[in-house]
Amino acid sequence: MAGIANVNTNVDSPRADPSTKNPNRPAPKPSTISVNTGTTVVITFCNLSPIPSLIHGYCQPCELGYTAGMASSNRIPPAVDAKSAELLERAYSLGDEQDTRGLYRDWAETYDKTMLDGLGYLSPRLVSDLLAAGTSDLTGRVLDVGAGTGLAGQELNARGFTCVDAIDYSAEMLAVAGKRKVYNRLIEADLSKPLDIPDQTYAAAICTGTFTHGHVGPSCLAELFRIIRRGGLFAFSINSGVWIDAGFDRELKRLEDNGTIHLITREADNLFATSSTKDCWLNLYERR
User: Fold this and answer.
1) What domains can you pick out in the chain, each with its CATH number?
2) Quick count: other Cβ atoms within 10 Å of Cβ 171?
3) Which residues contact 6 (CB under 8 A, 6 or more apart)?
4) pTM confidence score
5) CA dihedral for 113, 114, 119, 121, sign (positive or negative)
6) Quick one: pLDDT at residue 267?
7) Whole-angstrom Cα distance, residue 284 to residue 266?
8) In this structure, are residues 202 and 143 in contact, taking their beta carbons and an 8 Å threshold?
9) Measuring CA to CA, how many Å separate 164 from each of 20, 143, 157, 175, 204?
């Protein structure tokens, strides 16, 4: 773990606040793991294991949620209705472009009901809170990456952000997002390909629910950071099930090592209200 002089693993102080770069952030709960770059890293232990493991230089407690407490598929949270579980499993199992377009065409009008009512989806609110805590610039241009039906855009609007664009692969999902009247621009694009957006266009970016099973891989990260201005922020969630397996940990480490980005904070949290364990990483990075 380059540049780290000390790792504090004092279990007698589980509520110590590691967010030294933002003193206004609340102290994490005992079930939260937070990692910050700099000379000191403070690890607040999760309630599943007294000793976290360091994998690729990052703290990965109990593989972040893949325990017996999860549903049998290890991907669907327990206690959700069958229809919501079916749609989420279908989303996690996308195989090609036809599958992707077909799913989101069929799901666009009922997506919010499935994710909010059926699953208790938390990521849009949590990631919006993360970005809002990191910046006081509410008028700069923000890109909602993989915007879907606009759940994150709605959360940003509620926090005072006034200039937000949406980008998504599905025209049907963007059509629903447009009805919220919280976006300045709707962009239909494939995140796995180069984007027709100039360098350093955005003051910040947000991404919720896109870095997950069967969706966009880490190869898009360099392109997304390209269109964020230097000093700008990118707040995003990553499903813990793809954090290592898909190589997000390695690509973020590569971008840190080459000076493109700087980690401000990383926290483990729940994707869904019904999640029995921490099942995602919440990340806030600065573009260098």
Assistant:
1) 123-287 (3.40.50.150)
2) 13
3) 39, 40, 41
4) 0.69
5) negative
6) 96
7) 6
8) yes
9) 28, 6, 8, 16, 9
